[in-house]
Amino acid sequence: MEAVLDHIGVAVRSIDEALPFYLNVLNGSLTDRYTSNTAGVEVHVAVMETNGQTIELLEPTNNDSPIARFIRQKGKGVHHVAYQVDDLDQAILEARQNGVRFLEDTLRVNSRGRKLIYINPVSTDGTLIELCEYQK
């Protein structure tokens, strides 16, 4: 599996409060903003680009969303690191052959056409890692 850093997901309580730092201090640009109401996701997303690097600000849409639970347990901050792969199905197969466990219920295609799955943090020494593939 060849993987390239795709983006960092950052959990925030309020995108509107967090945006000025990324726009004004880091000189980033807002490239997309959307809401995912998919069950088990429930998140507002702001996609920021800074010098060719992508950061996704993640704000929970309700108190039961995964981001809300994350903030309650760990506080605001880095939620996940995402790596792009050419073939997600093949990457999953290869990772499983190396004993990697996945959060199976996270496998999906998001509203922007990105196919993704999260690796169970027990396989990564505690870091939530997303593998993603952009549809051709």
UniProtKB/TrEMBL annotation:
Domain VOC span(s) in chain numbering: 4-134
Ranges in coiled-coil conformation: none
Single GO term (MF): methylmalonyl-CoA epimerase activity
Keyword Ligase in record: no
Keywords: Metal-binding
SUPFAM superfamilies on file: Glyoxalase/Bleomycin resistance protein/Dihydroxybiphenyl dioxygenase
GO BP: any one term: L-methylmalonyl-CoA metabolic process
InterPro entries assigned: Glyas_Bleomycin-R_OHBP_Dase, MeMalonyl-CoA_epimerase, MMCE/EMCE_epimerase, VOC_core
UniProt keyword Metal-binding present: yes
Stored Pfam families: Glyoxalase_4
UniProt record similarity statement: Belongs to the methylmalonyl-CoA epimerase family.
NCBIfam families named among the record's database cross-references: metmalonyl_epim
Full protein name: Methylmalonyl-CoA epimerase
